[in-house]
């Protein structure tokens, strides 16, 4: 992709043709050249796949250089975007918070210090940092000890009031409540790994003689483990937290080591337990109980940790399609713009940003795309992708998108196993999206002529057989596009594309298979 900050505006005729086409109308080649006509024919052929017979499909392709719409079918149809929603959330966050934005986590004291005695409460205050690890809370506890505090006469107070108390999205599926990719959102949270899967714990099992041993990362007794698993000839084990509880039940048989990422029920309570144990490990005794509430004004700072910048966080967020990052950033935007760390306030920031950049068809219910009530049109996604090319933060944001066929997890991301050995490899920069019966792919590709193209592919309501390979075929065809020549044998575009995965984002399956 050749980066440029030039603002691109489609001509009036192009826009009129694009938005005049109603649902299910045939696509029209808007460029009279042989290459554009063949492009339309080939994409139509790809979309004739039998898996899409009863499905809904919307596809838009636009030249970033000229603003021409080279292909459009159902450009204005409202479709479920899945994780393509993150394109809007991440762009709004870059614009609103800035690439230098950091999440501070602080420890405050509310009383007076006399020698090693703190007469008052110790407050742990968070602002949503999704990159906090157990070791970071331990480092904060060490700072408290280094400040000379040995005994706290009051309580340990967890201040998560930077965000509201709504933990789960309004429309999230009930059966996702225990899944790490739908973990509860809190201003105080912790991640078990450097994928920064905030709000979850890794539960591991391994055969040890005739017993199954269980461990957690990080080490914690916050979860109540009920181990009913037995050693067997093969590993066929289920690790599942019971809904609305801290209880994790393990059943089945274990031969080889296995691990599962499990969402905690209450991130604030979980973090409080981690921090309290770290304080004790560093010789700081808190006499009172653990409670929650807002730090009083005038509380003095004892320790501080700041996250990586938003510009750096965009990489694990977008490459690995991290839902929790999206929701935390949504609430952070609401807090900054209207002093309300809520979904409604944050979603207003995202939708206002989108509309200010020409997006017309949009319905945002969350920041990640977990909600099936999220709705965008492929034309609106292409409009956003066009508009942000003029932003000063575009190059950082662009590089955070998954890159087709690049095997490095933090480069290729959710596209690292797709389109390998094709002209799209290391060319397509695009955001994936997937729910059951929903898949989408939207982003940028450079044509065979070196022309930058913008595209959005949204496929909804297919019943069986993931059509991600259809997305790949279209993306590869765009990489082959030439205004002066046909791509060659169009039938070859219908062959299987290696690496296309199933219904869920491959990064949502732990350990990630893609």
UniProtKB/TrEMBL annotation:
Keywords recorded for this protein, A-Z: Carboxypeptidase, Hydrolase, Protease, Signal
EC number annotated for this UniProt entry: 3.4.16.4, 3.4.21.-
Family classification: Belongs to the peptidase S13 family.
Nucleotide-binding as UniProt keyword: no
Signal sequence extent: 1-20
Lineage: Bacteria, Bacillati, Actinomycetota, Actinomycetes, Streptosporangiales
Stored Pfam families: Peptidase_S13
Gene3D superfamilies, per the entry: D-Ala-D-Ala carboxypeptidase C, peptidase S13, DD-peptidase/beta-lactamase superfamily
GO molecular function ontology, one term from the record: serine-type D-Ala-D-Ala carboxypeptidase activity
Domain of life, per lineage: Bacteria
Identification of the protein by name: D-alanyl-D-alanine carboxypeptidase/D-alanyl-D-alanine-endopeptidase (Penicillin-binding protein 4)
GO biological process: peptidoglycan metabolic process; proteolysis
Keyword presence, DNA repair: no
């Amino acid at each position: 992709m050749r980066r440029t900050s030039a603002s691109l505006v489609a001509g009036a005729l192009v826009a009129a043709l694009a938005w005049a086409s109603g649902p299910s109308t045939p696509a029209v080649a808007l460029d009279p050249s042989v290459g554009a006509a063949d492009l339309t024919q080939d994409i139509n052929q790809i979309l004739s796949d039998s898996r899409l017979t009863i499905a809904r499909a919307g596809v838009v392709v636009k030249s970033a250089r000229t603003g021409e719409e080279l292909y459009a079918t159902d450009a204005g149809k409202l479709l479920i975007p899945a994780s393509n929603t993150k394109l809007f959330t991440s762009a709004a966050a870059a614009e609103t918070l800035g690439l230098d934005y950091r999440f501070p986590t602080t420890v405050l004291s509310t009383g007076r210090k006399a020698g090693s005695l703190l007469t008052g409460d110790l407050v742990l205050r968070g602002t949503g940092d999704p990159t906090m690890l157990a070791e970071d809370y331990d480092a904060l506890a060490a700072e408290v000890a280094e400040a000379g505090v040995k005994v706290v006469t009051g309580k340990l107070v967890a201040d998560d009031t930077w965000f509201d108390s709504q933990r789960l999205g309004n429309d999230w599926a009930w059966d996702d409540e225990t899944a790490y990719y739908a973990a509860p959102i809190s201003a105080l949270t912790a991640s078990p790994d450097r994928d920064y899967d905030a709000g979850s714990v890794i539960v591991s099992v391994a055969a040890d003689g005739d017993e199954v041993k269980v461990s957690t990362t990080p080490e914690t007794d916050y979860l109540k483990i009920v181990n009913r698993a037995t050693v067997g000839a093969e590993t066929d084990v289920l690790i599942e937290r019971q809904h609305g509880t801290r209880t994790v039940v393990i059943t089945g048989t274990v031969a080889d080591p296995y691990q599962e990422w499990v969402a905690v029920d209450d991130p604030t309570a979980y973090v409080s337990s981690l921090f309290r144990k770290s304080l004790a490990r560093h010789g700081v005794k808190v006499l009172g109980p653990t409670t929650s509430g807002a730090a009083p004004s005038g509380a003095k700072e004892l320790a501080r940790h700041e996250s990586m910048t938003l510009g750096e966080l965009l990489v694990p967020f977008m490459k690995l399609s991290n839902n929790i990052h999206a929701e935390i950033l949504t609430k952070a935007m609401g807090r900054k713009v209207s002093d309300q760390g809520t979904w409604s306030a944050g979603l207003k920031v995202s939708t206002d940003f989108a509309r200010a950049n020409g997006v017309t068809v949009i319905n945002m219910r969350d920041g990640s795309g977990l909600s099936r009530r999220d709705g965008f049109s492929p034309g609106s996604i292409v409009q956003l992708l066009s508009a942000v090319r003029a932003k000063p933060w575009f190059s950082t944001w662009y590089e955070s998108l998954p890159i087709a066929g690049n095997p490095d997890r933090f480069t290729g991301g959710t596209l690292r196993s797709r389109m390998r050995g094709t002209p799209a490899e290391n060319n397509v920069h695009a955001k994936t999206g997937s729910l059951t019966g929903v898949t989408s792919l939207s982003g940028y590709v450079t044509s065979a002529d070196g022309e930058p193209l913008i595209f959005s592919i949204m496929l909804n309501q297919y019943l069986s057989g993931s059509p991600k390979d259809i997305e790949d075929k279209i993306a590869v065809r765009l990489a082959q596009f030439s205004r002066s020549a046909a791509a060659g044998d169009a039938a070859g575009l219908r062959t299987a594309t290696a690496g296309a995965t199933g219904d869920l984002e491959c990064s949502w399956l732990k350990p990630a298979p893609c």
